[in-house]
Each structure stands twice: as C-alpha cells, then as structure tokens.
C-alpha cells in the first residue's frame, strides 16, 4: 500500500459522489468514482483500490451483490454509505463482509474518521512483525539492521525483494493471491 490511500467510490447520486470525491481529494486520497455496480466491479478489478465506499441502492444491482462478489476474491475493506437505515439491512451488509456502515445523511467528518480508522488497520496489517529479528530454519531477518541471512550468510535483496519477503513473513501460513501481492508490494 502506498502512503496515498486509493478509494473506489461506488455511488449513483452524482451530487453525493462529487461531494465525497472532492472532500477525499482535499484530504490527500486518490478517488475513482463508479456510478453503477458493474462499473464499480470493473474498476475494482482493474485498479485494485485500498478501500471501497459503497452505496447499496445502485441502478443495476443491489450493493449487497457487490459486497458478495468482492468478498469472493478480495479482503479489501468495504465501507457502506447508504440511506438504508433498518437494522436488518445493516446486519446483512456487515455479515456479507462490509467492514463498516454509515447511513445517509452523514457528516463528512465522521466519514473521514472511519476512513482513517480503516487506513490505520491496513497499515498495522502491513507493518513488519514487532520482533526485531525473525528466524525460521535457515532464514533470519533482522528488521532493525535490514539484514537477511540464509544459512548464516548475508544475502543482498533489492528494496522490492525485501518488501516481498516482509509481506510473506507477515502473512506466514496464508495463501496470497498474485493480485494481493502486486497491490501490497
């Protein structure tokens, strides 16, 4: 993840999407806007955003379908921004995989705070382990000195290789998709 958080906004109301996009850009976020579910899914797979802001009432598909489709292949955070305020609908969206839910009308300050919270969680997930040294079999990584040893011999890694190694260590035991690796490194 780069320092600039990339946000995909899937919202069919142009007034709301313009307001949110301008506000997010002022805060330093990179924003892509989609006005339909299909356009949003296309932009999601092609742009690999860091998070999604999703309206549920879209013209071509229900936003719940979008959550289900994204969760089929990605763990990217999804924040629902919807006029649907019934508890049942909120629970359904969260159970399908949305990370947060805010109802319209909303205050921009609250939305920005929720986005910052997501950004903090993303950064914590990508941070190297709190240990200063990682060791496993023949591999040793000293995070403070940025040294990698294989069988006790120092190995020079490019910055990209080092980031990839950090990502794999942080996700030890997990299967990482190619798209996830490309996005994170």
UniProtKB/TrEMBL annotation:
PROSITE patterns: OMPR_PHOB (PS51755), RESPONSE_REGULATORY (PS50110)
Domain OmpR/PhoB-type: 131-185
UniProt entry keywords in alphabetical sequence: DNA-binding
SUPFAM superfamilies: CheY-like
An example Gene Ontology biological process: regulation of DNA-templated transcription
Keyword hit for DNA-binding: yes
Pfam families associated with the record: Response_reg
Name used for this protein in its record: KDP operon transcriptional regulatory protein KdpE
Organism name: bioreactor metagenome
Organism lineage string: unclassified sequences, metagenomes, ecological metagenomes
